[in-house]
């Protein structure tokens, strides 16, 4: 294993990457790097609804199985991402015309089959993803429109029943500062917990850029607030965007942001994982989105360590 993975293992800390199933079984260098550098992986796309049920009633775990088996071979834990999201739905579902009752069964079957199908193999599920809007209201997704606000509690309950040993997370973006969305997410989880809904953790996606350096101390306070609700904290999708044409100084800023976020996490005893959203810069989602260049991760295009990589080792 690499110095990074050895340091994480030694610290008893989970340091991970998102893994793109398309590359597994096709790119041996990618597989090798993922295996040696990280001790936990997140399925970047493989568990999204459009891939697990591409045709109505026909479940397919081909993609997910590739990522989960590779992780098992490498002795890595797996974060299952994600059960209930408003995006990445198959067209039969997003464009279909279903009654509330039909949506209800589709929802139940999805969770039961996916979680049940991987029972005992998943460290944590992102049960719901991005359910709060920036203004603090619940997002008006296909799920909420048909099932009402209770769909969130129901998703956790069904996931718990399907795999009692997996930790169940609510995953959210842009709540790294104490904004309206973060406050609403905090209130939501507090009320779910009060009702006995089985929620174990909060995932902070942490897609940030250079301007985040001045906000890391606020992020630490936000993590502390959520931890005080009795939650495990995971940083689930971190990347630090330094623009299209970064200079050496930008990579040093990037390294400081990664290290400060890691330090904040390590200072909270229920913060157990930091997962970055791609094994190296070349495989960042910020590239395939727009065709633009992006350099947000720990390893460069040739899988060589960047300043952030070495800084993380020093902090672990
Ligand atoms: C992204 C993947 O990285 C892309 O490959 C895919 O095309 C779209 O989804 N927040 C999330 C992730 O919770 O699921 C998203 O992943 C990135 C933003």
User: What order do the helices and strands follow?
Assistant: HEHEHHEHHEHHEHEEHEHEHH
Label the CATH architecture: Alpha-Beta Barrel
Overall tally of domains: 1
> What is CATH's topology name?
TIM Barrel
- Major beta-sheet overview: 8 strands, parallel, barrel
Distance between the termini: 16 Å
- Counting DSSP H or I runs of 4 or more residues, the number of helices is 13
**Residues in helix, %:** 40-55%
Would you mind describing this structure in some detail?
It contains 13 helices and 9 strands. The chain is α/β, with parallel strands linked by helices and 316 residues long. It has a single domain, classed as Glycosidases (TIM Barrel, Alpha-Beta Barrel), CATH 3.20.20.80. An 8-stranded parallel barrel has the order 1-2-3-4-5-6-8-9, surrounded by 6 helices. The longest helix has 19 residues. (3S,4R)-3-hydroxy-2-oxopiperidin-4-yl beta-D-xylopyranoside (XIL) binds next to loops. (3S,4R)-3-hydroxy-2-oxopiperidin-4-yl beta-D-xylopyranoside binds next to loops. It comes from Deinococcus hopiensis KR-140. It is an enzyme of class 3 (hydrolase). It catalyses: Endohydrolysis of (1->4)-beta-D-xylosidic linkages in xylans. One of its GO terms (molecular function) is endo-1,4-beta-xylanase activity.
Layout of strands and helices, then pairs:
Layout: H1 3-11, E1 14-19, H2 28-37, E2 40-43, H3 49-52, H4 62-73, E3 77-84, H5 91-94, H6 100-117, E4 124-129, H7 142-147, H8 151-162, E5 167-172, H9 180-194, E6 201-204, E7 207-209, H10 216-227, E8 232-241, H11 248-266, E9 271-276, H12 285-290, H13 307-315
Parallel strand pairs: 1-2, 1-9, 2-3, 3-4, 4-5, 5-6, 6-8, 7-8, 8-9
Helix pairs in contact: 1-13, 6-8, 10-11, 11-13
This protein binds (3S,4R)-3-hydroxy-2-oxopiperidin-4-yl beta-D-xylopyranoside.
